[in-house]
Amino acid sequence: MTTIRLAAIEAYAHRVPIKDPIKVAFGTFRDRPFVLVRVIDDSGAEGWGESWCNWPSVGAEHRARLVADIGERLIGREFASPHALFDTLSRELEVLVLQTGEVGPIAQAVAGIDIAVWDMMARRQDLPLYRALGGTSARHVPVYATGINPDQPETYALARRDEGHRAFKLKTGFGAELDRRNLAAMRAALGSDMTLMMDANQSLDLRSAEQLAADTGALGLLWFEEAMRIDVPAEQWQTLATSSPIPLAGGENLRGEALMQAACGDVLQVIQPDITKWGGFSGNHPVAQAAVARGKLFCPHVFGGGVALLAGLHILAAAGGKGLLELDCHPNAGRELIVGDALPLTAGQVPVPQGPGLGVTPSLSALERYRTLAVSAR
Q: Looking at residue 241, what DSSP letter applies?
């Protein structure tokens, strides 16, 4: 892998209107924002990334400006590898994180840059990105339908089943009675052959999480995601892991050493980092390897645009194991105009693109109608 010398870093904020708001335990999404990142090296090679920006409502424009501001310090410098760039940049930004308190937004900007750099390097080597990460001969990955709202979810799930889905994750955290009703209704509608999971988005305390797990354990759920806040004492997580008949899942809101500890520990059996939130490929590929080596499911979290989906797919393909890719089933032009027909769904699986890098190149002109900001560092 040859050295990296960046000549430009560009960030494009977008907002896609949606017809039906998407409900989660902590709030409601009324549009679908995403930030594309493009890096260009001194030979003209380019790569594409994405930074997480779902919340708050001003997140997209804020993250785009951060990408450009942070990117200024990279222009013209030489790095031996994407890992070296990520480690150097993360170290140099430590004081800025302390100064601003913006640990999440800064991590998300760095993640978008890292994904773009890996895409560029894989394209330079004429390799699909999962192969550049060390993966071998992956052709398909299993997916699960996500973003299922608490309003009559069985109807929505049946429609997704008819499209080819075989695994489904329900949003919970809307009150024990409704959660139990929805999970039971989905299992009854889908039957015992379909895979079912739930995601509480950190909304429960220990007692209510234990009760919900006990009440729904007979439904055969594959996992119970983010049952409690990630900052509750470790003893409470251990208590829940011991008592729950459903394996615990999480990782979307962990970073750095805390995420690696989760991958190596005995509490979470399903590891779900979002590589656009923290770490990109450089930070999360070692986490994926650690999780799979310990027999856990590595299932990257995805709830963004098309580049985020493709990046999650490639890190899953590189990791191996039996993990599933999160596939948001709500209409989203920011995903569809990038992915196009590259990921046809068949019997719960999508193909792994075999072209260079992510396997798809976004069209800025196709997305222009949704753009709210474009900034760059040169």
A: H
d(CA 192, CA 316): 26
Respond yes or no on whether the N-terminal peptide bond of residue 233 is cis (omega within 30° of 0): no
| Confidence band of 367 (pLDDT split at 50, 70, 90) | very high
Is the CB of residue 296 less than 8 Å from the CB of residue 290? Answer: no
Minimal CA–CA distance to 197: which of 240, 141, 146, 251? 146
Query: Does the pLDDT value for residue 368 go beyond 90?
Result: yes
What are the pLDDT digits (tens) for 161-198?
999 999 999 999 999 999 999 999 999 999 999 999 99
| Contact status, residue 45 vs residue 357, Cβ threshold 8 Å | no
Instruction: Reply yes or no: is the peptide bond before residue 33 cis, omega within 30 of 0.
Output: no
Q: How far is residue 184's CA from residue 218's CA, in Å, rounded to a whole number? A: 10
Cα→Cα distances 105→51, 97, 112, 175, 370, Å: 9, 9, 11, 31, 22
Structural domains in the chain, sorted by start = 4-127+363-377 (3.30.390.10), 131-351 (3.20.20.120)
Q: What single-letter amino acid sits at 218?
A: A
